[in-house]
Amino acid sequence: MVNSATRRTAGWKARAVLTALAAGGAQAAAAQDHAGQYEQADIEFGARLYDANCVQCHAETGDAVAGVDLAAGVYSRAGSDAELMGLLRAGIPGTAMPPNEFTASELTGLVSYLRTMRDVDLSAVAVGDEARGRALFTGRGACASCHRVFGEGSRTAPDLSAVGAIRTAAYLQRSLLDPTGSMLPVNRPVRAVLEDGTVLTGRRLNEDTYTIQMIDQDERLRSLEKAGLRELTAAAESPMPPATDLLDEQEVADVLAYLLTLKGL
Amino acid sequence: MPTTTSARRILLPLLLAAALPAGAAAQVTFDRLLNAEAEPHNWLTYSGTYSSNRHTTLDQIAPDNVDRLELAWIFQANSLEPFQATPLVVDGIMYLTEPVNNVVALDAKRGSVFWKYEHTPSPLARPCCGAVNRGVAMLGDTLFLATIDGNLIAIDAIGGAPIWKTTVADPAAGYALTLAPLVVKDKVIVGVAGGEFGIRGYIDAYDAATGEQAWRFYTIPGPGDPGHETWENDAWRTGGASAWLTGSYDPDLDLTYWGIGNPGPDWNPAQRPGDNLYSDSVVALDPDTGELEWYFQFTPNDPYDYDSVQIPVLIDAPDGAGGTLKLMLWANRNGFFYVLDRENGRFLNGTNFVPVNWASGLDDSGRPVQTPQPPGATTFPGVQGGTNWYSPSYSPETGLFYVSAWEAYGSVFEAQEAEYQPGRVFLGGRPANPFGAGANVPSLRRGHINNWTDAAGGGAVIAIDPRTGEQRWRVAMTDVTSSGILTSASNLLFTGNREGDFHILDAENGDVLWRKPLGGMIANGPMSYMVDGRQYVALAAGHSLFVFALAE
Question: Per the CB < 8 Å rule, is A219 touching B158?
Fold first, then answer.
């Protein structure tokens, strides 16, 4: 499934290049420059946010406001992506463009979409249906058997209550498809054997030269002196299997859509 | 749960059902809070127990071994805001607020951090006197954090993730939350700060599980409620009466006791004729409904900013006829030490514990006989009071009450007409320096150099016999003190001072048995706990929490 996702990305890139070549001219070249920079999940997430927040004034084509052509991918008021994010957040005083409270991942999505909207192909579904995703999260996907959201679920894996605000759509998609490749080092699964033979397994929370802190299999916080351990190992492989082991492509997209709704308190 | 099964849950999560048993971690039930005395190795509430006597029955650290005390570990805050929190310790894990509104879970033996929850307060927050927080409360596996931007946040004590957030107050209108909440039964009780901003104060209770509001007690009665008539000129709308320090609870009487802050505008009582209930009072509330059972007002129509925001210390004493007196001990910011009957609020006795000239004494009902000083004359105690929010202690071993005091410290009060503007300070004058421009007097904080004279006053630890109100002993300090006090069953008294000394006194006679300069102002209440048979004492100095234990 990871391979299939890679193929899909490759196919999208190929389409973008073809479109750019066909369009010709300086603007198409600019769009081509942007093409490989943004990831499909972020672009799709951004397209949804565009529909919800921008389309009323700017229209689907991006050119409904006089003198503004969003689809051009280059903007006089915002050269870099960071400037564009700042503009989206602050609005443009004195115009109808209002300030907005977008999260970091929403800004990443919007910028990804705006920079590529002339050429983007939204037919490949990376971001699915959030209601179905929520049901899969607690149901067949069994995400809540390790992860916790707003006080519900297990603590053995990282809490996801705010994950949609602090991780981009593309990062979350990678986490779902390739958990090991996107696991933060601090979260590595650890196994400690105490002097009396007790075996603790769980997730690393913190570590220094002499001690390690973890949450164990019974959801207890443990702080251990390394010198007092018979054995201590940290695995580089995530205990989470690729989501595609249990879900099909559409369902993974649904779970991603749900995760993107989790913005903390 | 057998290890093998648990391991499978980690490694093969998708093979298992979504529903899981609750974690095996410590559950701080209400029953445990009620019986906190029975587990002295833990520190489950801001003041240690519901009676708030900040006394530990741990006695490993004792007068004959205190010279073996050594530093166990330090937690350094990533913040230069004042460090005034008392940590909780539950079965080897410490929960501490890092200024301003972060919460950290630490290994109580060595200070290693398990997790940190970070709350960045809204820039709309405008606490009058420092961006402070005094700690968290806990029920079940949930911590409760009150933030300076007016939120109450429930945080998972195991994972450190937020569970719910409730808006208690509007920071833009000058409200703030600086206290450690108090959990009673299934509710989380908080009060608001903001007495310098023309707020109308209140105490709120929230459902611990959901964050839904259960009740609100307005500390200024509204139209039609008893006491409303004590505010003329419509002054009740902006009369202050904050509640910014944790209350106490008596489970037998089922009453929770809270100290109430100053009326506003602070220094111009002419704008608010009347007694200004329930400012500068203690109120006894039904913890289920928030209904007022009784009140006692210490300073009617206060012109001095004498918040009655102190910790209500509850003790039981023999009545001499085979029964028990249920007492409340209260060293007030106005300079008087009070003993009240906590069943009904009746005044039993009161004596000044520092020099006082704003009143010539207390009448039979406890009401002060006010003696306002002429314009330009110095009033004692000054604006920061004879004491303030610094936690006192009562030791059942010595039968003495201990308080951190500012002695012979005064201010010249000047009243001015104040106009209320939402979110702006509403002070009605100022407390002036009695020594004129150029001379320093103690205030909220100090630097490294002590630049005032003896005439500006000094600090002291005072031991008071609550049976008579008499001072048993006092230990004077050059600078004033903002430190709380902890006593132990081994008759030690742990406290600090603004000069940065952590000192340990003999609770019987005040002898200084041990001291250590920590290099920063001490402004929290020391606490104690035990892990794996070793007793620890923790207190904050400057921007760090210091933890001491006997050398192993």
Answer: yes
